Amino acid sequence: VLALAREFFTQCSREEKLQIRRRDPAEAWGDGARGYQVVGDNVTQGRRDWHEAVDWYRPIVDGEGIVGGNERAEAVNGKGSLVNGNGNGNGNGNGNGKPGDENTTTTTTTTRHPPFALLRGINFWPARPAGFRAVYEIYIARMLELGTAVVRAMGEALGLEGSERDVFVRSTRESFWVLRAIGYPPLPARSRPSASASEGGKGKTKQRGEEEEEELEDGAISCGAHTDYGCLTLLLADETKGALQVLSRSSPSSPSSPTADNEPQERWIPADPLPGALVVNIGDMMERWTGGRWKSTRHRVVHRGQGYRVSVPFFFEPDFGARVGALTGLKGKGKG
């Protein structure tokens, strides 16, 4: 998975990448969410991030109540990545199609046509590297299985009972997942954050860290500080160390050595990859779901190394129409 993403980002030309670029809903085949973003296109906290990426979302199935806007929903192939046979398609069953390619064909005979409402479009798959789509669809299936196992365990940890016992699993059976492949070129030397701004130090508060980041110019950070908005993130990352950073919160200083405001201390710490392991982030939705029992993870990426960093986060989300409200029967001791 990582090797294919790296090959796409580093070996494909700009023109090849732009063939699957993200399009606005007003553009042909666009839904404002799916597709490729060039370096600097993604914005966090008002600053342009120094990375490129491709986003795929759960395919839309006609008749399930998700289709919206003015779309002509004639039919669906269940894959959500289609061509219409007249040169306006975006991909075929072998992952070799691209927008505007009159020679692309599809392994199915059913199509959906734009305009699409926000989030309700079709996925764009790159023509190269070979086998990209097949591998990623297998990976998606495995991540859905893993996501279900993790949220089931989370429900057990919270001691949920009665109608809430399997609420996480019940609400994610048709997860409106998001998969994102991200490529991080090294930050330009002229705009790299200083070590103090990137790493933080003992006694550095979150407020100070935010002030430092707000002073950065566009392209001075790989991905700005944020929490994931959804339920659960399963992050696959390459071996690059020191790039992914998590905001760690410690208890207030002891009475013998208080800080000026005696507030909890927060500092950036590295979340380096472990062989054979994924990073699991709790998102804002899960924080609200648990009534604040479990907090969403604030994190950022500052890639100052010389290599090209690649990561592939899978966002395991509830069903599109799931109703999420604070749980009432929290009995577990899990504090996350």
List the uncertain runs: 68-110, 194-212
Distance between the termini: 29 Å
Topology pattern, helix = H, strand = E: HHEEEEHHEHHEEEEEHEE
Helix content: 10-25%
Alpha-beta classification? alpha+beta
Shape: globular
Largest sheet: 6 strands, antiparallel
Rounded average pLDDT: 79
Q: Report the radius of gyration as a whole number of Å.
A: 21 Å
Strand content: 15-25%
How many helices? The count is 7
Q: Find the count of extended strands (DSSP E, 2+ residues).
A: 12
How would you write the strand order of the largest sheet?
1-4-5-12-7-10
Description:
The chain is α+β, with helices and mostly antiparallel strands and 336 residues long. The chain has helices at residues 2-11, 14-18, 132-157, 167-170, 195-199, 206-214, 284-289, and strands at residues 35-37, 43-44, 47-48, 52-57, 178-184, 223-226, 232-237, 244-250, 265-270, 279-282, 299-301, 309-316. The chain is globular and about 55 Å long. The two termini are 29 Å apart. The chain has seven helices and twelve strands. The strands form three sheets. The protein has a six-stranded antiparallel beta sheet with strand order 1-4-5-12-7-10. A four-stranded antiparallel beta sheet has the order 6-11-8-9, with helices on one face.
Write the topology of this structure.
Blueprint: H1 2-11, H2 14-18, E1 35-37, E2 43-44, E3 47-48, E4 52-57, H3 132-157, H4 167-170, E5 178-184, H5 195-199, H6 206-214, E6 223-226, E7 232-237, E8 244-250, E9 265-270, E10 279-282, H7 284-289, E11 299-301, E12 309-316
Antiparallel strand pairs: 1-4, 2-3, 4-5, 5-12, 6-11, 7-10, 7-12, 8-9, 8-11
